[in-house]
Amino acid sequence: MIFTTLEHILTHISFSIISIVITIHLMILLVREIVGLRDSLEKGMIATFFSITGLLVSRWISSGHFPLSNLYESLIFLSCSFSIIHMISKMGNHKNDLSTITAPSTIFTQGFATSGFLTEMHQSAILVPALQSQWLMMHVSMMLLSYAALLCGSLLSVALLVITFRKNIDIFCKGNNFLIKPFFFGEIQYLNEKRSVFKNTSFLSFRNYYKYQLTQRLDYWSYRVISLGFTFLTIGILCGAVWANEAWGSYWNWDPKETWAFITWTIFAIYLHTRTRIHIRSRTNQSLQSMNSALVASIGFLIIWVCYFGINLLGIGLHSYGSFTLTST
Amino acid sequence: MSSLLLNPNRAFSPLSRQVLKASFSSLCSISNARILLGSRPTAHRVVGFKPRASRDSFDAEALPESNTKKKSRNNNKKIILFGSTPPPLSEERGGSAGNSSGKPAAEGSSWVFLQRAFKRVLAVLSNLPLAIGEMFTIAALMALGTVIDQGEAPDYYFQKYPEENPVFGFVTWRWVLALGFDHMFTSPVFLGMLILLAASLMACTYTTQIPLVKVARRWSFIHSAETIRKQDFADSLPQASIQDLGIILMGAGYEIFLKGPSLYAFKGMAGRFAPIGVHLAMLLIMAGGTLSAAGSFRGSVTVPQGLNFVVGDVMNPNGVLSFPSQEFDTEVHVNRFYMDYYDSGEVSQFYTDISLYSLDGKELMRKTIRVNDPLRYGGITIYQTDWGFSALQITKNGEGPFNLAMAPLQLNGDKKLFGTFLPTGDADSPNVKGISMLARDLQSIVLYDQEGKFAGVRRPSSKLPIDIDGTRIVIEDAIGSSGLDLKTDPGVPLVYAGFGALMLTTCISYFSHSQIWALQDGTTVIIGGKTNRAMLEFRDEVNRLLDEVPELVTIDKNFNG
Q: Which chain regions cross the lipid bilayer (chain B) (predicted)?
């Protein structure tokens, strides 16, 4: 009983904090930069992380097994992974734009998990015989970490695509500003100052320069984050294969979920291969190549969702936990 | 010794790093030792292969703007790209050229033609866009394999993809069946793509990756300030000494080579090697998978508690390489089958107590298996996968016990239903009446009377009698049957080795191989660097390290590096 209350409280705390973080982000974006608010953003993300982790731990204690047995728990774990990635990216102290991806992603997954769609799943489910293994912890947590990382990375690529194509469509459009601004928390002040000075003359070239830098950075960080996620995905799939050899009698069954995980793996392998000849010096070639890889990453973004959600919703195959008690091969 | 020659830095770095940390003043002697250690392999190679060309290139590098001959320019460029020592590429080229010039005299032109064709095929296969295309195709085929229901009877496809109303305007059952998409993952199209991908992997590893590593393993100094400035990252530090830079880089985990005014440092060489490992691991997994498909046995059996079977009787060969082993003459006895339940009544685990006997009746092994914990004996693995209701043991009016066989009425995944019937009165009369008993699991039996009305529920463990139409029935026991899957799979060790290698090499592939060159030019140190993956992190790191390099306040005119 106490755990149920605790879970309730922690869910609400994490959701409120992340909402506040998002609101502050929006305020900074739309109104003006306030230095004090930026620190509170970081603290807010850390507090969110701890309350989500606390939620998972309390579920673990109350149910007696690792809290990754149904969609609700995996969504909570996904938002936890997003906040982990957020904190890691902040720890490195590099200027990357991951926080603009991780914070909204956290609120979306957390919001979806706690929304009405999945109410019947909130109760911690019993563990079916096939799931009672130490591999559960390794396999599922690795898969979700990789989903989180790959989603972040491919969203950066999507952002890159959007920005590049916007440039071609309406470079003078005022709305463009709002699109770029979120990625510029650091530079926006500087840009504002410059804008007043170079109002008419070199304003455009400045914007182009920053846009070039920004796309470079997006490209680079999406590559790094996707490589990390790809590593996790490999480990996750292989752990799953070893587990399947223990539980189902074969290390590969061409089960829909397995197959889609392999498709995801292949797509991101393609992404990594499109990057191998990036050492081309010319700018146009390079941007063309980064566009190509960004396109592949955006395909990957859709495929992760099919793999993670689509197959679960269809409820086909061996991975459809929730309604069945014994695996039937 | 040869490994030491190839990679002297690895063998000696821990020692020298310690010494360095211990005393700053000993740097000179250590850098001398470095030079000795480092220069030995160079000297070895240079003398061995191409002393003149390499000396030329050194001179040319020192004077990049000098208008040397065009040919030596080219040479120069290549060497800057690949490293200053003569690359083995040229050695190979020379060797193969020798072969091709030597062979025709002996064996005629067909050999040359074959060799050329082989090279052409290699070049085509190692083409990156082709490999990407293959991966895309495989991904698409797999996606298709999950969209089209697999392994159904032809009738199913006739109905689902009728010719009158094709899906997307052209997909009919003819397409599906002709291409074998009803069993996608064993269809010739899919397997052919996998084989093509494997060929591409091999070709790419052979023609692209291995030469790259040969080049990367060769550490090299750059003696021209211009070339250093052309690197991805370039900076210059006024009033600094190259030794200070060396110490700071060493503190950051770089391997350092110092020779006179030039410095070469690198870190994360494994990141260069790892992609080869990834490709080899993929090939290993594919080979293991092929062995699994060709040489395994599978079998599946439902055994009532207390009965036994011989392994060889249930095993079916899977492929052409499936040869039975002597362990197939083992007898499996199911001692007991039982389930554990949660408080809510749902099954928490299935257990089967299994004994293995040799044919002469000796017990070889005994184990209680469950889902996730199979029995392994001599290459045979026995899995707990299914269950059934074999028989119900009852006493009727104190007589018995009788065993009533349970019939499966509904087997829909886990929603199973078993039933049996106990005739009452005259069993030979045309309309037999009796008591029906239904069960969803081994825990509770639902009884219905002669009219089909609900009579009651009894648990086998309670031994509580129930009176139906004057008949007193006691349910003594519920005998389950255990669904076991058996297999032998010779590919598993290979596949697991591939898994291990793949995990390791993918992790290592995340790290990037960074190289730094520096040149002492008067009191200024010119620094250039490049890395293959983490460019921005590398830039940040080097900037941070360069900030740590102490500035020489008093300019020493006699300073000489």
A: 121-148, 189-208, 276-297
Torsion of CA B167, B141, A140, B533, to 10 degrees: -130
Are B395 and B542 found together in one domain?
no
Note whether A235 contacts B503, CB cutoff 8 Å.
yes
Q: What is the pLDDT of residue A329?
A: 27
Is residue A16 less than 8 Å (CB to CB) from chain B?
no
Residues A214 and A328 in one domain: yes
Q: Which of A12-21, B312-321, B421-430 has the lowest mean pLDDT?
A: B421-430
Claim to verify: residue A305 and residue A161 sit in the same structural domain: yes
Chosen for mutation from A214, A234, A279 (greatest number of chain B CBs closer than 10 Å) is A234
Of how many residues is chain A composed? Answer: 329
Angle at A265 between CA B297 and CA A272, to 5 degrees: 135
Cα angle for residues A245, A247, A253 (degrees, 5° grid): 55
Asked if A246 lies within 8 A of B135 by C-beta distance, the reply is: no
Whether B79 and B224 share a structural domain: yes
Cα gap B505→B280, rounded to integer Å: 10
Question: Residues B393, B534: one domain?
Answer: no
Mark whether A91 and A201 lie in a shared domain.
Answer: no
The number of distinct structural domains making up chain B is 3
Chain B residues near residue A241 by CB distance under 8 angstroms: 495, 499
Q: What is the pLDDT of residue A236?
A: 95
pLDDT of residue B107: 61
How many whole angstroms separate alpha carbon B561 and alpha carbon A123? 71
Residue B256 is part of which domain span? 2-87+218-268+512-548
pLDDT, one tens digit per residue, over B475-489 is 888 888 898 999 999
Instruction: Provide, as residue numbers in chain B, all residues whose Cβ is less than 8 Å from the Cβ of A235.
Output: 503, 506-507
Q: What is the pLDDT of residue A180?
A: 45
Confidence class of residue B416 from pLDDT cuts 50, 70 and 90? confident
| pLDDT tens, position by position, B138-173 | 999 999 888 888 888 888 888 888 877 777 777 778
Q: Is there a single domain that holds both residue A138 and residue A106? A: no
> A190 and A301 share a domain?
yes
Distance from CA of B197 to the nearest CA of A (A): 12
Q: CB–CB of B374 and A246 under 8 A?
A: yes
- Chains A–B, number of C-beta pairs less than 8 Å apart: 131
Nearest chain A alpha carbon to B136: A267
- Count of other CB atoms within 10 angstroms of residue A133: 17
What does R_g of chain A's alpha carbons equal in angstroms?
A: 22
Residues 443-472 of B with CB under 8 A from A: none
B190 CB near a chain A CB, below 8 Å?
A: no
- Taking a C-beta distance cutoff of 8 angstroms, is the pair A118, A109 a contact? no
Q: Is residue A252 part of a domain?
A: yes
Would the CB atoms of A325 and B485 count as touching at under 8 Å?
A: no
A-chain residues near B506 (CB < 8 A): 230-231, 234-235
Within 126-185 of A, beta carbons closer than 8 Å to B belong to 126-130, 132-133, 135
Q: Using the beta-carbon criterion (under 8 Å), do A126 and B535 form an inter-chain contact?
A: no
Same domain, A110 and A132: no
Q: With a cut of 50, say whether residue B130 has pLDDT above it.
A: yes
pLDDT score of A283: 60
**Domain assignment of residue A194, yes or no:** yes
Please state the pTM of the whole predicted model.
0.79
Q: Which residues of chain A have pLDDT under 50?
A: 169-202, 278-280, 322-329
Q: Is A236 exposed, middle or buried (0-12, 13-18, 19+ CB in 10 A)?
A: buried
Structural domain including A16 reads 1-115
Q: Is B489 on the interface with A (CB under 8 A)?
A: yes
Q: Could you tell me which residue, A206 or B74, shows the higher pLDDT?
A: A206
ipTM beyond cut 0.90: no
